[in-house]
């Protein structure tokens, strides 16, 4: 048995133990369903409303991915721009940090007022949440080039663009993946928070409706989907990372 | 390529206290000569190499390569650089690493050796498709050597290229380097800490004294290659080199 399969089994076992204790506790103490539904009850809710959850998840996932794409592109391109024009770095980073420090929970309702109940404010919030880790990571990736390699490219009389294309960009790739692994789960949170503050669909809307009706099995079903979705995104990125940045020690072992 | 160094001084103004790495250095190197630069740490020998390679601009004085500025020679791809770290691009395989170096050559200069021929010369034909992380330290440095060859430059600047290797790989690569150098006969400036390496390789050894860096001795080694330590003349030169190095150390202690 190889290492990754073994750790997968351990994770599965832990999740099962967690669900089993939860189920046992709810049954043993007779916890009412409006306080904490059992996992079995939650899964039954999920299974009896597949269409509703599928639709809501598709919408939320779509908003998250669209926002993530915009956030990654903006963060990545801004990092490239700051590498090529280092004079701008101080000013732009101050602005970015200012924006990052503003609580998104406060901005989300404003965006709903300005942009309506459609998908646009969700995508904007998600993009705002995801762009910062990408900017910071990719920027430091583009700047942390091995000086021995810079010397070598200089001795080859390579132009700034060639250094960028053949050296800085590939050096930044592992940093981009590190950023994506932070940003992708954030994207789901961003979309759900935005939906919670006013939406015509999506998992956030489902959760909000369930919450206001104290229909906790519905709420928990949505939470399960989000947890599974976030983990799947993270795993997918890990797999992609091993394929793309294959030269890193982490990628080689598995 | 011949080298003329005239009252070359380099001061690192930004380091505190201000450090004079090289003070009023003068020497000449004939085209095709293999010159070892040896001396204790901080004697400015690496700085000299960087100045020759246009990786650094001198504070005063000048280096002329065939009468021209190092910057011109670098732009003409006449200078090949190799350092202690193999500096391979980890995302490129052996063949691509060598090919990348040739890619930046001016279009009017067609390399005489193909990438595969270069790899064959350093004994890496079987590893042409291998990525650097699958190669041992010795193999990686051999690949860096292949890349150096592929440039077909007339000046090789080598900053302790084999210093990080184990003794066995080091001996072997040193011998192979001589075999590669002899038919092409570029001028070589070879920075080293290793007395035996200098004696086995060089036509001439410049001994540097530290802070500020000056040339303390200039030894010519007129022995046929391959050189053997058993040769009494090798031992004589060794003694002379030790004496020259010893005086730089006493000078340092006296300061």
- Whole-angstrom Rg of chain A: 22 Å
N-to-C order of helices and strands of chain A: HHHHHHHHHHH
- Oligomerization category of the chains in this entry: heterodimer
Rg of Cα set of chain B: 18 Å
Strand content of chain B: 15-25%
With strands numbered from the N-terminus, the spatial order across the biggest sheet of chain B is 5-6-7-3-8-9
DSSP helical segment count of chain A: 11
Supply the CATH class of chain A. Answer: Mainly Alpha
Strand content of chain A: under 5%
Number of domains of chain A: 1
Query: Largest beta sheet of chain B, briefly?
Result: 6 strands, mixed
**Helix content class of chain A:** over 70%
Residue stretches of chain A low in confidence (pLDDT < 50, at least 5 long) are none
Description of the molecule:
The complex is a heterodimer of chains A (254) and B (255). Helices cover 83% and strands 0% of the residues of chain A. With 254 residues, chain A is mostly helical. Chain A is globular. Chain B is built from eight helices and nine strands. Chain B is of the alpha/beta class and 255 residues long. The longest helix of chain B is centred in the last third of the chain and has 23 residues. Chain B folds into two domains: 168 residues, Rossmann fold (3-Layer(aba) Sandwich), CATH 3.40.50; 65 residues, no CATH class. Chain B has a six-stranded mixed beta sheet with strand order 5-6-7-3-8-9, with helices on both faces. In chain B, strands 2-1-4 form a three-stranded antiparallel beta sheet, covered by helices on one side.
Write a brief structural summary.
Chain A is an all-alpha fold.
Question: How would the blueprint of this fold be written?
Answer:
The complex is a heterodimer of chains A (254) and B (255).
Chain A (H helix, E strand, L loop, with lengths): L2 H27 L9 H10 L1 H35 L4 H13 L2 H12 L4 H24 L3 H9 L4 H37 L6 H10 L3 H29 L4 H5 L1
Helix pairs in contact in A: 2-10, 3-6, 3-8, 3-9, 5-6, 6-8, 8-9, 8-10, 9-10
Chain B lengths: L2 E10 L6 E11 L4 E5 L6 H8 L7 E6 L4 H6 L3 E4 L11 H10 L11 H7 L15 H14 L4 E5 L7 H18 L2 E6 L2 H7 L2 E6 L4 E7 L11 H23 L1
Parallel strand pairs in B: 3-7, 3-8, 5-6, 6-7
Antiparallel strand pairs in B: 1-2, 1-4, 8-9
Helix pairs in contact in B: 3-4, 3-5, 4-5, 5-6
């Amino acid at each position: 048995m190889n290492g990754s399969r073994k750790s997968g089994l351990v994770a599965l076992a832990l999740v099962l133990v967690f669900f089993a204790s939860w189920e046992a506790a709810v049954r043993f103490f007779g916890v009412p369903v409006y306080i904490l539904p059992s996992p079995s009850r939650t899964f039954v809710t999920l299974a009896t409303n597949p269409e509703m959850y599928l639709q809501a998840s598709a919408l939320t996932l779509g908003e998250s991915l669209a926002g993530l794409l915009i956030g990654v592109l903006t963060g990545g391109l801004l990092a490239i721009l700051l590498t090529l024009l280092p004079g701008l770095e101080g000013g732009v980073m101050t602005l970015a940090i200012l924006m990052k420090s503003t609580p998104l929970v406060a901005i989300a309702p404003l965006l709903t007022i300005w942009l309506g109940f459609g998908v646009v404010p969700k995508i904007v919030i998600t993009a705002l949440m995801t762009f910062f880790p990408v900017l910071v990571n990719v920027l430091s990736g583009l700047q942390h080039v091995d000086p021995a390699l810079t010397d070598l490219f200089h001795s080859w009389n390579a132009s700034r663009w060639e250094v960028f294309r053949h050296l800085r960009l590939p050096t930044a790739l592992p940093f981009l993946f590190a950023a994506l692994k932070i940003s992708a789960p954030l994207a789901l949170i961003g979309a759900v928070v935005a939906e919670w503050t006013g939406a015509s669909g999506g998992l956030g809307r489902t959760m909000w409706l369930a919450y206001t009706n104290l229909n906790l099995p519905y709420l928990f079903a949505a939470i399960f989907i989000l947890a599974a979705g976030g983990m799947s995104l993270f795993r997918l990125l890990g797999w992609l990372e091993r394929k793309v940045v294959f030269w890193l020690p982490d990628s080689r072992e598995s | 390529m011949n080298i003329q160094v005239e009252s070359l001084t380099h001061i690192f103004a930004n380091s505190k206290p201000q450090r004079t790495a090289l003070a009023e250095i003068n020497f000449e190197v004939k085209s095709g000569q293999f010159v070892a630069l040896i001396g204790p740490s901080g004697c400015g020998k690496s700085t000299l190499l960087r100045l020759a390679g246009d990786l650094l601009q001198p504070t005063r004085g000048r280096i002329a390569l065939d009468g021209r500025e190092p910057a011109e020679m670098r732009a003409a791809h006449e200078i090949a650089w190799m350092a202690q770290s193999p500096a391979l691009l980890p995302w490129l395989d052996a063949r691509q690493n060598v090919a990348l170096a040739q890619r930046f050559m001016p279009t009017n200069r067609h390399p005489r050796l193909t990438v595969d021929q270069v790899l064959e010369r350093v004994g890496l034909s079987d590893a042409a498709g291998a990525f650097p992380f699958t190669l041992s330290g010795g193999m990686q440095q051999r690949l860096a050597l292949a890349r150096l060859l592929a440039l077909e430059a007339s000046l090789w600047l080598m900053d302790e290229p084999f210093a990080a290797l184990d003794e066995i790989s080091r001996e072997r690569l040193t011998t192979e380097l001589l075999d590669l150098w002899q038919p092409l006969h570029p001028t070589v400036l070879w920075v080293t800490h290793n007395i035996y390496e200098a004696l086995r390789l060089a036509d001439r050894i410049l001994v540097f004294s530290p802070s500020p860096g000056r040339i303390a001795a200039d030894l010519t080694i007129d022995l046929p290659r391959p050189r053997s330590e058993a040769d009494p003349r090798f031992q004589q030169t060794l003694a002379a080199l030790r004496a020259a190095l010893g005086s730089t150390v006493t000078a340092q202690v006296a300061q």
